[in-house]
Model the fold of this input.
Amino acid sequence: MTVNVSWYLTLAAILFTIGAVGLLVRRNVLVMFMCVELMLNAANLTFVSFARSLDDPAGQVAVFFVLVVAAAEVVVGLGIIVAIFRRRPGSTADDAHVLKG
Amino acid sequence: MLLASASIPDALTFIVAAAIVIIGALGVVLATNPIHSALMLVMTLFGVAVLFVEEDAQFLAAVQVIVYAGAIVVLFLFVIMLLGVDRPDALAADRHVVQRTASIVLGAAVLVEVILLGGGHWTTGARSVSGSLTNSGSNVSILGKALFTTYLLPFEVTSALLVVAVVAAVVLARRTDQTSTGEPEVGEVEATELRAVRTEGAVIVSRDGE
Done:
């Protein structure tokens, strides 16, 4: 027997919470972005757990799409971060709160 | 409780991978150097990949390692080193004490709620009628059949999304403030004027006086 699905869901909840608290606590834009990746991975873990427990491949297909969207999101987000840092070196999330150059 | 329902190797794999995931996630949040955060993120992603293998999602585990650890984290490290922001960014230096306390309290509340939801008997769902996921062929063939039959339209939309992301990355990364780099060349000025004339919709007259 494999490990019960509740343990995977609990681990995913812990991972999601660490990511969410990190997103709120940190001021460095890059580290905040990594915390978003942590939350995405927690959701992926939940998808795969339910795909196994319900014998449905739809969960794994959803994780596939999440991976693609995460890759696109990282590309665009890092482009925005590079554009912000080019204008104001050493800025944090607080310096970009106006969303205006 | 964990060991009672699972075999010893499965339980040990889960415990070790879960410890790797949680330590890595805490490292991402608590590390003062962004490069250390990125390396801790790699650790977490490998732990999640091990859990994917444990849950019979071998293809996703491979893709997780290749795409996340191989591409996304490398992109993070590339941007960190390109921008030179790898000096320590002290977590204690910022002054948002109220915000930090509130976020930790809210995070704890979310954690308790989600664990109660996940541990209770509310997480139900209809089991698939097509048999066991592991006995009806390899993981890649199951995923490929689902992806190219049932989910073909989302798959195609995904390709459009990737094209949009590539175009957006090129547009964002281009340096647009060319006027600040110095005096423009004479030919550039003429080209700019010609372009301005053309955009006004006027009849374009050759500047050579023809």
